[in-house]
Amino acid sequence: DAGITQSPRYKITETGRQVTLMCHQTWSHSYMFWYRQDLGHGLRLIYYSAAADITDKGEVPDGYVVSRSKTENFPLTLESATRSQTSVYFCASSEQGTDTQYFGPGTRLTVL
Amino acid sequence: AQRVTQPEKLLSVFKGAPVELKCNYSYSGSPELFWYVQYSRQRLQLLLRHISRESIKGFTADLNKGETSFHLKKPFAQEEDSAMYYCALLTGRRALTFGSGTRLQVQP
Fold it and tell me: Residue A84 sits in which domain range?
């Protein structure tokens, strides 16, 4: 499903630095989501967006900021990275009125 | 609050053996449940949803509201079924609450 892409695929950063993870989808899906995947926790919702300029917190939003100025993009920013934010981050999208979410390939982030 | 529990981290079976991946949920509303699968080096993808009551790749799952369960079953496992399986619950805001996942290993 090349329709949803994430960049970078791998990122190493240091504690305290700002990092932005990009998510882009070509389907014009209304809903977009950010999840983090950690061993023993499965995937947990960080933020989601129902449409451009509409975002809301998920289960684990602390330390993250999102924006959605365009339907196709949903960047996730770690304002001041911490080691506990080392994780694999998945972006997903879904069309309004449907329940299937389509996932990006993930970004593996390591915070040293 | 909603919760999805997958009690087994790893399930190892031999090819041709039956498979049952367990999933229990807690949700105050009417549940919509899914199984997602992640094969090695591939993206997470939808396997099946309880509403459609379909069989995908030989897998089925029945929602049991009395036991609050949505176990995934397949009568005869194949090696290509080896993957990470996640049970997920759709919340009112259209996001998914995932279980912690079960890794299925099918040995030859």
Answer: 4-111
Structure tokens at A16: 């305290």
**Hey, are the CB atoms on B90 and A94 less than 8 Å from each other?**
no
Which tens digit of pLDDT belongs to each residue from A40-95?
888 999 999 999 999 999 999 999 999 999 999 999 999 999 999 999 999 999 99
Residues counted in chain B: 108
Domain that holds residue B80: 3-107
Q: CB of A90 within 8 Å of any CB in chain B?
A: yes
Number of domains forming the structure of chain A: 1
Radius of gyration of chain A (CA): 13
Give the pLDDT mean for A27-41: 92
CA distance readout (Å), A111 to A62, A105, B11: 16, 19, 31
Determine, for residues B46 and A100 on separate chains, whether the beta-carbon distance falls below 8 Å. yes
**A2 band by pLDDT with thresholds 50, 70 and 90:** low
